[in-house]
Design a protein that fits this description.
Elements (H helix, E strand, L loop, with lengths): L10 H17 L3 E2 H8 L3 H10 L15 E3 L3 E4 L2 H4 L7 H15 L6 H18 L1 H6 L9 H14 L1 E9 L4 E15 L1 E8 L4 E6 L3 E10 L23 E6 L6 H4 L4 E4 L5 E6 L7 H7 L3 E5 L1 H16 L3 H13 L4
Antiparallel strand pairs: 1-3, 2-3, 4-5, 4-8, 5-6, 6-7, 9-11, 9-12, 10-11
Helix pairs in contact: 2-3, 5-6, 10-11, 11-12
């Protein structure tokens, strides 16, 4: 199974498939992975990805009401189909959350009209069953982040296999850039991102949707190269072995860097700090980290990046402290004992 490229998938179509998958598995205990994948017209990797999500779904988060589905690598077993098949009973807070979320989703731009109408009909049935709880939900509303419209365009582009043009803000460079990208998939890790093939850099890149300032769906077909999708369960940013190596030293107040940045090693220093070795495709993006750390850290190598970080610190401090303040502060940044 491993190593097969996974096709781009539309989020709504995947939801439909997973709902059908629940019924299919209930009627076929011990079904073989290859047979189920063939029945749904998907790869085995795609099916396993769905199976990773299903155990987080269920009638509620109370009393173990989640789907108990697992696989031994060959067959799929659902251990509690009768439990979750019982009539659904919603508590007042569950009904309120469901109704508010359904109303919010129904306003998303780009949603197919047939899906919108189906959602509204289902919402009306829940409202009728919820009684007084429905009245409480009517007083609540949800406004999606500015990424909502971007999400719809990206989802549509993936579904129709079309290229995207975006104006994207990069906080590391503090600049807007224009790019054409072939979207591969949407992922959510805290924020929502699109993983895509960037035509400007000719490499795979991940873009955070709320940093997309402008987006257009182009007429050109999306044609990303066949690449193996990464497992993002460990971290969203996963440096490659060929990426440049950067060494950062942090004091006790900067130990958090080792928790937030994937790294090759983190060696203890005598003062309670760490010497962290990491890799990144864009070393200049770490200048902002150096400025954030201030006296709690410094870039050791490569030397040109360390010099660049010191210059950036001097320029930033010059606006606040005057000449002597610059001298004192920069010494704190780049003259930590070896």
């Amino acid at each position: 199974m491993a190593g097969k490229p996974v096709r781009p998938v539309n989020a709504i179509d995947q939801t439909r498939r997973m709902l059908s998958l629940v019924t299919y598995l209930k009627e076929r205990p011990g079904a073989r992975i290859e047979d189920v994948a063939r029945a749904f017209g998907i790869t085995e990797d795609e099916l396993v990805s769905d199976l990773d999500v299903l155990p987080m779904c269920g009638t509620s988060f109370r009393g173990g009401d989640l789907l108990d589905i697992d696989t031994d690598g060959d067959r799929i077993w659902w251990h509690n189909p009768d439990d979750v098949a019982e009539p659904l009973r919603l508590a007042a807070d569950e009904a309120t959350a469901l109704l508010v979320a359904a109303r919010a989703v129904s306003t998303l731009p780009g949603l197919r009209e047939s899906d919108r109408q189906a959602l509204l009909r289902a919402n009306a049935k829940v409202e009728a069953a919820a009684g007084e709880a429905a009245g409480a939900s009517a007083r609540l509303s949800v406004t999606f982040e500015s990424e909502g419209g971007v999400f719809a365009d990206v989802d549509r582009a993936i579904s129709e296999r079309r290229r995207l043009w975006i104006r994207y803000y990069s906080p590391a460079r503090d600049e807007l850039s224009e790019r054409e990208i072939d979207p591969i998939r949407l992922v959510s890790v805290g924020h929502t991102y699109v993983e895509a093939w960037c035509r400007r850099s000719e490499a795979r890149r991940t873009f955070r949707l709320d940093r997309v300032a402008e987006i257009k769906i182009l007429d050109e077909p999306s044609a990303p190269p066949e690449i193996e999708l990464r497992d993002l369960s460990e971290a969203l940013v996963q440096p490659a072995a060929e990426d440049p190596e950067v060494v950062v030293e942090v004091g006790p107040g900067g130990r958090w860097v080792a928790e937030y940045y994937p790294h090759d090693s983190a060696d203890e220093l005598p003062d309670g700090g760490l010497r962290i070795t990491l890799r990144t495709p864009d070393p200049t993006s770490l200048r902002r980290l150096a400025l954030r750390l201030g006296r709690d850290g410094r870039i050791v190598s490569p030397s040109d990046l360390a010099d660049s970080a010191r210059r950036a610190a001097r320029e930033a401090l010059a606006a606040y402290d005057g000449p002597q303040g610059v001298v004192d502060a920069v010494q704190g940044v780049d003259e930590r004992p070896e």
